[in-house]
Amino acid sequence: MNILGISAYYHDSATALVRDGQILAAVQEERFTRKKHDARFPINGIEYCLSTAQIDLKHLDYIVFYEKPLITFERLLETYIAYAPQGFRSFIAAMSVWLQEKLYLKTVLKKQLAKLGNCKTKDLPPLLFAEHHQSHAASAFFPSPFQNAAVLCLDAVGEWATTSLWLGEGNQLTPIWEIDFPHSLGMLYSAFTYYTGFRVNSGEYKLMGLAPYGEPKYVDVILNNLLDLKSDGTFRLNMDYFNYATGLTMTNSKFDRLLGSPPRKPESKITQREMDIAASIQKVTEEVVLRLSRTARKDTGSDNLCLAGGVALNCVANGRILREGEFKDIWIQPAAGDAGGALGAALATWYQYLDNPRQVSGSDAMQGSYLGPHFKDEEIRQYLDDVRANYQHLDDEQLMPQLAEILAKGNVVGWFQGRMEFGPRALGGRSIIGDPRNVKMQSVMNLKIKYRESFRPFAPSVLAERVSDYFAIDRASPYMLLVAPVQKELHLSMTEEQQQLFGIEKLNVPRSQIPAITHVDYSARIQTVHPKTNPRYYELIRQFEAKTGCGILVNTSFNVRGEPIVCTPEDAYRCFMRTEMDYLVLENYLLAKSEQPQWQKDESWKQEFELD
Q1: How far apart are the C-alpha atoms of 26 and 576, rounded to whole Å?
Q2: Which position among 239, 333, 426, 573 has the lowest Cβ density within 10 Å, counted as fewest Cβ atoms?
Q3: Could you tell me if 514 and 437 are in contact, meaning their C-beta atoms sit under 8 angstroms apart?
């Protein structure tokens, strides 16, 4: 039985295909269209999933959408009525979109699918609609390694729910309680993302990365004015300070007066004040999530926790749950945001709607999240010949030691192999990699490769069996969703002068023997690499360890600022040629920048994405 899950029309459109409970393929539409967070109908993703399964649309048994638009419309109407006459301009803007398209989403979807399948709408498979947080919960629990778990979903908003707790048992999810809009931890964090001058729905990572440079001076301001936080983690927001319920911005003038100034203009200088604000909202978020996790343990009685929703991508908060919470183990859906809803909707259909049994094997079912396209040797060769690229073709026995030597010399390498990752993290399928021991690697990658803010940290990819040698963590973290401290014996002592530095001045002070992946608070966002799920990446790190004694590589996503992660060999070569990467690996093809033909430079993309 083939079930296709779809998320679309809000942000991060995605598609997933499940056959008899097994995940065959999952991908975000942005990777094909090259438009970051693309919300359009995922025609390319559907075609990819069908191709991977070697079926046509008519062979699908069910198509399921990840939320129920009519309930969302109800929430919008009730919210505008509650705040009337405020928000009239926003109401008109929203209603024009809904009355033209979203209110008739079932019809729109059927027309799009019929066009794609070259058939009539009456000949389509049954079209189902899951609830938004049900899709999140299903994406978190059903692929997890647990037979029984508390499932906590935290995001901006679904239909009504912004935070929900479920009990996962076998093939069923039972809702326990929820917090409804407008009281939303995701919206609160996004409000501060907006206020500090970053883009909502994409800049939250920046806010989290900026936090360690600041001091949490505004925690009391937030807790005394913006957030009524209870001991069990439940909360209510003071909507007098926010504009997102009915307005065109996240915060309002009263919020500005509370914090002392208007929002920072995008691309303007980041000051110590923004760093302190980031530190404050991050600390508050961690406290809310930690309290909620303790309540989840109490209310479900389960020893295991699963997480999904956009807030579950806050890996600093996840790390605190692991270290300070009351669960024996936690598992986080790698595509925790709306993209993962496509997968959750398909899995909810298979297990809950159709009541199929679920078997747990002791490891998760995400296959390392390598669920996207891969490319054959002849496809890569054909493209490289078409652009007259100079390359070597090497088998792995030749390539891996040579690449370890290249990395040890301080070169930055584009690494493209296997199936593309599903979710926002590059996990060794579409990555840019480097030497973590190099004190200049972070600034070089940020400013010359990624073209992004210098303060943003990079993650370590570490051999799974060596993780505890470098970091204070005792378990796998394959999806880069847990932050843990660097082991103290690897710390470097600081001079008295260095200890007095504050803010962005901290950036250039090496903190450990692996400085390129050690954040200013001595933490790191960890990816453990396993031979079962990514044998080639594992072997590369093993060869690097044999060469240098270090079982870690710097890993960041293979893209530049404002662009999605690369999907095809063409995407990878284009990114390689217009940045200052030194080498590119496309499966078994090795390319040196110095040996490539002249590239026709086009800098217009920088302006296009400069406000991302």
Answers
A1: 26
A2: 239
A3: yes
User: What are 40-78's pLDDT values in tens digits?
Assistant: 999 999 999 999 999 999 999 999 999 998 888 888 888
Asked if 547 and 401 touch (Cβ cutoff 8 Å), the reply is: yes
**In this structure, what CATH number is given to the domain that contains residue 588?**
3.90.870.20
Cβ within 8 Å of residue 318, ≥6 positions away: 307, 312, 330, 332, 481, 482, 483
- Length of the chain counted residue by residue: 612
Does residue 285 share a domain with residue 352?
no
- Strand residues in 109-257 grouped as ranges (E): 127-129, 148-154, 161-169, 172-180, 227-229, 235-237
The residue segments making up the domain with residue 31 are: 2-144+334-365
Three-class secondary structure assignment of 75-127: HHHHHHHHHCCCCHHHHHHHHHHHHHCHHHHHHHHHHHHHHHHCCCHHHCCCE
Asked if residue 528 and residue 494 are part of one domain, the reply reads: yes
Distance, in Å, from the CA atom of 339 to the CA atom of 345, rounded to the nearest integer, reads 11
The backbone torsions φ and ψ at residue 523, rounded to the nearest 5 degrees and listed phi first, read -110, 170
Which residues neighbour 88 within 8 Å (Cβ) at sequence distance 6 or greater? none
The DSSP secondary-structure symbol of 160 reads S
5 — phi, psi (to 5°)?
A: -100, 140
Q: CB 171: neighbour CB atoms within 10 A?
A: 18
pTM tops 0.90, yes or no: yes
Low-confidence stretches of the chain (pLDDT < 50) are 604-612
**What pLDDT is attached to residue 606?**
47
- CA nearest neighbour of 332 among 126, 144, 611, 500: 144
